[in-house]
Design goal:
Layout: H1 2-7, E1 47-48, E2 65-68, H2 76-84, E3 88-93, H3 97-102, E4 112-115, H4 121-131, H5 135-148, H6 150-165, E5 171-175, H7 182-193, H8 198-206, H9 208-211, H10 213-225, H11 230-240, H12 244-258, H13 261-268, H14 273-283
Parallel strand pairs: 2-5, 3-4, 3-5
Antiparallel strand pairs: 1-2
Helix pairs in contact: 4-5, 5-6, 5-11, 5-12, 7-8, 10-11, 12-13
Length: 285
């Protein structure tokens, strides 16, 4: 648990010093069933997207599409669970190059690891600077960058290419630091491509507030014990939680640049109608 708490200090790469329960509200907490959670000792916010229903009443297949926070501290039992139960084949690491270098993922025998940064170190530094003034504004900028920057579009395209070529019985897992922002938007894209209704997409996204709640509380409590001002703690909290308005910012950027989030998939990421059909055939039942 201590390693997990330290690990979340890099959440979206934000650099304000931290480490832990301030009473706080987690608005928009999910209706996602607990059955989606994969309980690991060395990783947080790990979930299986299996079971979500599409608008056409199909369901996402279980044990194929996994999302999580960083995997640097996996235990041997964690690795065995991922390999034996989920037949994990590929891990896509969406973190910045600097963070990947500082806390590399655990190497799991037989599992391919793909470094696929959504955000550059330079963009993250810019987000960090904004966070010293406004946590919420920094998050809005981060989410907009998921749509507006060529690096993010390339990274998410690479994620979909991995999904398209994955074996039919092997899982693929994508993650960032806390499994909530870059992972959250990537998951929203995957579920959207599969035809899952937007309401469910947002519920899955907001579920990170539930799965990260204990760690966030520890970090904020530590700041209070260190004598950090209430205003600074509040700014930090804005970067540790997920909010509907953050995901809205990405959707609005997609609407403005491409016409819709669906058009972002085709025009922004270059996915064809055939690609979308292949994804649905592969991952839906």
């Amino acid at each position: 648990m201590k390693k997990l708490i330290i690990g979340l200090l890099v959440v979206v790469g934000l650099t304000i010093g931290l480490s832990t329960p301030i009473t706080q509200s987690f608005s928009g907490v999910e209706n996602v069933r607990a059955s989606h959670q994969i309980k690991l000792h060395g990783a947080n916010n790990v979930r299986d997207l299996g079971g979500y229903q599409t608008a056409t009443k199909q369901k996402v297949k279980s044990r194929l599409l996994l999302r999580s926070a960083k995997l640097a501290d996996l235990t041997g039992k964690d690795e065995q669970l991922l390999v034996r139960r989920y037949r994990l084949k590929t891990v896509v690491d969406l973190r910045t190059p600097a963070v990947i270098k500082h806390t590399p993922d655990a190497k799991i025998p037989g599992v391919q690891l793909l470094k696929d940064p959504v955000v550059s170190d330079k963009t993250m530094a810019s987000v960090n600077r904004i966070a010293t003034v406004s946590g919420s504004k920094s998050m809005v900028k981060l989410y907009q960058s998921f749509v507006t920057t060529s690096q993010a579009r390339h990274a998410y395209r690479q994620l979909f290419l991995q999904l398209l070529k994955a074996p039919s019985n092997r899982a693929i897992l994508w993650h960032c630091s806390a499994g909530k922002d870059r992972t959250g938007f990537g998951t929203a894209l995957v579920l959207t491509a599969l035809g899952v209704p937007q309401k469910t997409v947002y519920q899955d996204y907001l579920a990170s507030n539930t799965y990260n709640k204990a760690l966030i509380s520890h970090q904020l409590s530590a700041l209070k014990q260190q004598g950090v001002s209430r205003q600074a703690i509040e700014r930090k909290k804005e970067t540790l939680v997920v909010k509907k308005v953050y995901l809205d910012a990405a959707y609005e950027a997609a609407d403005k640049k491409y016409g819709s989030i669906q058009d972002y998939l085709t025009k922004g990421l270059g996915l064809s109608k055939q690609n979308i059909a292949q994804l649905r055939q592969h991952y839906l039942k």
